[in-house]
From TrEMBL:
<dbReference type="InterPro" id="IPR050345">
    <property type="entry name" value="Aliph_Amidase/BUP"/>
</dbReference>
<dbReference type="Pfam" id="PF00795">
    <property type="entry name" value="CN_hydrolase"/>
</dbReference>
<feature type="domain" description="CN hydrolase">
    <location>
        <begin position="4"/>
        <end position="253"/>
    </location>
</feature>
<dbReference type="InterPro" id="IPR036526">
    <property type="entry name" value="C-N_Hydrolase_sf"/>
</dbReference>
<dbReference type="InterPro" id="IPR003010">
    <property type="entry name" value="C-N_Hydrolase"/>
</dbReference>
<keyword id="KW-0378">Hydrolase</keyword>
<feature type="region of interest" description="Disordered">
    <location>
        <begin position="264"/>
        <end position="283"/>
    </location>
</feature>
<dbReference type="GO" id="GO:0016811">
    <property type="term" value="F:hydrolase activity, acting on carbon-nitrogen (but not peptide) bonds, in linear amides"/>
</dbReference>
<protein>
    <submittedName>
        <fullName>Carbon-nitrogen hydrolase family protein</fullName>
    </submittedName>
</protein>
Length: 283
């Protein structure tokens, strides 16, 4: 049996990159002390998220845009060392566009990168949209990544599972409800949706799910935290609750997937030829 110790982060990040890197370094040290080999940090942890999900781009230039092959990502990789670390950032692309992205690194460099596909509310005023979901090999297993609102679409996680992902990692800056806000985030309806998506995506695809999220507040947003690790049966193995922290769990990933898929294999038993609605033109 070969077990993997993994952790999802709930933490607060802002515009100051040096402060963000200080938080990241502290979290990596804390995870290393717990023998964690896979660490997921939140969406936009390098440079912070947007101040608002309304169309306020004139009030907020957004986070600093970082090149995938630039010094900041190399710095993150150096901090990761032997650990596999996943972190959200604003990507400066060669075509001049900015993407809400997530990168996977270790001491050898970049292992994978994903650009957020699904954009809620006015996020498209700040970022271009990604155009695919894919899994990739890492020292801790085959991983597929997505960002926040991506997980509201079952097709996103299913695409990763069909590409062989053993572990789905979703990094988020998921806030509490915009209207009829409650004092206790534990009672927040958007927090409830966040948790339901996490458990559903794991169970539907019968793979391990690691969900990181921002905590605290930034601009007009109050984040729900709730970082967690979910097993292939949809059971929560570790959860930070609505406060900052590390959700740490240990699992034999290969064995867990084999056990979950032994009798009823959701990927194996698919009938894709039946899923096109009547009258629709197939792609």
């Amino acid at each position: 049996m070969s077990t993997l110790r993994m952790a999802a982060v709930a933490a607060e990040f802002g515009r100051d990159l040096e402060e963000d890197f200080a938080v990241v370094e502290r979290l990596i040290k804390a995870a290393r002390a717990e023998d964690v080999r896979l660490l997921a940090l939140p969406e936009a942890c390098l440079g912070g998220y947007l101040l608002s999900l309304d169309n306020d781009t004139e009030l907020d230039e957004g986070p600093p845009a970082l090149a995938l092959d630039g010094p900041e990502i190399r710095r993150l990789a150096a901090l990761a060392g032997e650990m596999t670390v996943i972190a959200g950032y604003c990507e400066a692309a060669a075509d001049g566009r900015r993407y809400n992205s997530v990168v996977c690194v270790n001491g050898d460099g970049v292992l994978g990168n994903h650009r957020k596909v699904h954009q809620p509310l006015s996020e498209d005023a700040s970022y271009a949209s990604g155009d695919r979901f894919h899994a990739f090999a890492t020292p801790v297993g085959r991983i597929g990544m997505m960002i926040c609102y991506d997980k509201a679409f079952p097709e996103s996680a299913r695409a990763l599972a069909l590409d062989g992902a053993e572990i789905g990692v979703c990094v988020s800056a998921w806030p509490g409800a915009r209207t009829h806000a409650v004092a206790d985030l534990n009672e927040d309806r958007w927090k409830r949706r966040f948790d339901l998506h996490d458990r559903s995506r794991a169970l539907e695809n019968q793979f391990v799910w690691v969900s990181a999220n921002q905590a605290g507040t930034f601009g007009s947003l109050r984040f729900v935290g709730s970082a967690k690790v979910v097993d292939p049966g949809g059971e929560i193995l570790a959860d930070t609750g609505v406060t900052a922290g590390l959700a740490i769990a240990e699992l034999d990933v290969v064995q867990a997937l084999e056990t979950a898929r032994r009798s009823m294999g959701h990927l194996r038993d698919r009938r894709p030829e039946t899923y096109t609605p009547a009258g629709a033109v197939s792609a």
